[in-house]
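hiii, so i know i said id send this last week but things got crazy w the move. better late than never?? heres the sequnce for the chain we talked about at the cafe, plus the structure i predicted for it. fair warning i was half asleep when i ran it
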Amino acid sequence: MKPLFAKGPSLGVHLLVLVVMSITLMVVDARFPLLKPVRSQMGLVLMESYHITDLPQSLWQGIASQFGSRTELVAENEKLKTEALLMQGRVQKLAALTEQNVRLRELLNSSALVNEKVEVAELIGVDPNPFTHRILINKGERDGVVLGQPVLDARGLMGQVVELMPYTARVLLLTDTTHSIPVQVNRNGLRAIASGTGNPERLELRHVADTADIKEGDLLVSSGLGQRFPAGYPVATVREVIHDSGQPFAIVRAVPTAALNRSRYLLLVFTDSRTPEQRAADAAMAQEAADRQGLPGSGDAAQPGAAATPPAPATGTAPATPASNGQAPDVAPAPTTTPAAAAPTSTPERH
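okay and structure toks below
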């Protein structure tokens, strides 16, 4: 009787056969080129299987790298935009101050600073009414924004805050028909009033004399006389000056320097809230304190306090001092200009 399952060769025989076949293939592959095409095809099959098994890890690394690089680039881009906006705002101020050479600011003890405190805001909405030029920004009362606060972009002044909400604010643009701003020609200091026309690409200068020294291409900067906008920021560039011999005033049209229809990131300027009189008084007090502490023990240090009282007017019978040998002195003592007397000069001339 035959068994149900026939027994085959043992495992040892199988192993011996495989070892002999492996040695034979290695010898043939080393001495003859017969197996090179087979080896090449096997390499392709193994390479494809390697790519398939490595595909999940490669995809994960690629996705992680793409998202990580994009996040880093977006963060770096936002940082560079903010830095560029701040630097361009400072360049505007420095350009105006360089042209003016700080000639009137130092004489009037003005505190017009080159670097005001600023904060970056983003435009989040535009008023749909075509007859009003207003925008909505993402900074409000909780961020320290106040009514009347100046707003500018990287090129120049844009407008001022006219409505406050806790986290947002509305800004009235320069080109609105209800808005006007005192300006001056950066070339010669000629003062004027720039008013909105309802056209986002045009401002008009009102009541400019026909003989005024103003020409096409002149840069108009804020004069600071309205006590609302800081002085020295670009407002517009004169595009057209029309002279009419029959009219007392010239027609002057200008183009705003700010990109009112394109800017998305804006700057809120935090200016000194003190009035010119308060700034002058504070400057006078600081100067008086510095004079008192300047030269202790010398005769000059005691004179500022004595000079606070107005000197008696010189007359023909004025008593002679020993130094003048019986004659009235030709020149008043050195500290004749007192801080109290210098204070009124710091009040800017109003329109």
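btw Confidence is low (pLDDT under 50) at residues 102-114, 295-351. thought thatd interest u
miss u guys!!
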